[in-house]
Please model this.
Amino acid sequence: MKGADGRIGGRSDGRADLGPRLVVAAVLLSASPAVRLSAQVDRSKPPALPPPPALKLPALQAAQLANGLELQVVEMHKVPVVDVQIVLDAGAVRDPADLPGLATFTATMLQQGAGRRGALEIADEAAFLGAQLNTAASLDVATVSLHVPKRRLGPALDLLADVLLRPTFPDSEVARQRELRRAQIVQQADNPVAIASIAFPAIVYGRAHPYGRPLNGTEASTGALARDRVVEFYRSYYRPTATHILVVGDVTLAEVRELVSARLGAWEPAEGRAAGEGGAAAGAPDAAARAVYLIDKPGAAQSVIRIGHVGIARSSPDYFSLQVLNTILGGAFTSRLNQNLRETHGYTYGAFSQFAAGRMAGPFVASASVVTAKTDSSLIEFLKELRRIRDEAVPEDELAKAKAYITLGLPGDFETTASAASRFRELIVYGLPHDYFDHYAERINAVTASDVQRVARSYIDPEHFDIVVVGDKAQIEAGIRALGEGSVLYRDMWGQEVK
Model:
């Protein structure tokens, strides 16, 4: 076909009009390799996952100081920073039965005055050194942690040694921190998610078990916090013979041994109760029949759901199979619970599950915050998925995806000194072997579909679920009762019966 000027295709530049398809092809040929590759990608299906890379971790080197202090060092020399984690057997499991919250309060008080420094001076010194200094307690352990540039490690360890060995626990700071905690508890009472997080373990374990007590205590126990109780707890559980120091970063074992010995080598336990003598170590309670525990929160915009029961300890031989199971069930965004309740039904922004394994058997819990009007419908879908994972074998493609999700993500946990210290700390807290992570991917990949179904039937028991719902009772009670999934009982924020 000729144009008005007599040229083929009617182009004024004298070039032939090759048509749309040939033009696109010409553009792609002249484009960069990345653009050409993008055009070849099949976007109708997810890309195939590569095999996980071999995980090559630096060795965990161990030594012991003369005073019994255990030292572990992991050398990572790419970046001139150092992370220090001091792990003490002073977690909330050591709380006296009449004073929950004492362990976390004691850990907080370490930074409120130490040596010749007050609370503000400790904070100013850490900031001057470019360091992050934190003290905290979880259920199982207390931790003093430090993140600092390598060139400031010595002075930062001086500060840390003051906080760890020479806390002053001034009365004025005890009173101030006590009032701050009391205010936090008042705030929690207005937050349905916080209420569920306190009530669920209390209902599952009861107050006789340390895992059933509120980590930061109650209003009554907070009011009873006093300097003498803090000092007694510190003297009982902050001891070198029950302490491990983990150092990860641009250091060597010899260097760390010299630095730590100079500052902590003379640490001797104070007079007081020997570590290990206090705190309750009750066994898990017997499982009760499935029931719904309703905590009334009038006017709540959503209902907060927690479903579960006692789970496993971190030392369980079934831990790896349960990791795969939970990834399929509710441990990832693409897991069954989230796909069902969020993507398919639109009841929630997120639905998840977890085996919170501790030194003792921690809870299994499935959770979500859901639209109030769909509380009963959400419970139906939760229970459907929790029963399906037991009753039906997991398809091989779903199993493979879950294992890849875990193994491909593992190297990222060791990219920085801080994240590596967090993972290596698990070896200390739970008494795991030093080469544990060297075989982690191998053990995950060995899990079979039959393993998943076996542990699902062993550790997920719908007949004994504790179903905790925090929401507007006037709007949700009738729908919950109509489900017929167990007795409906009434509880308060602390898991106590409401009549």
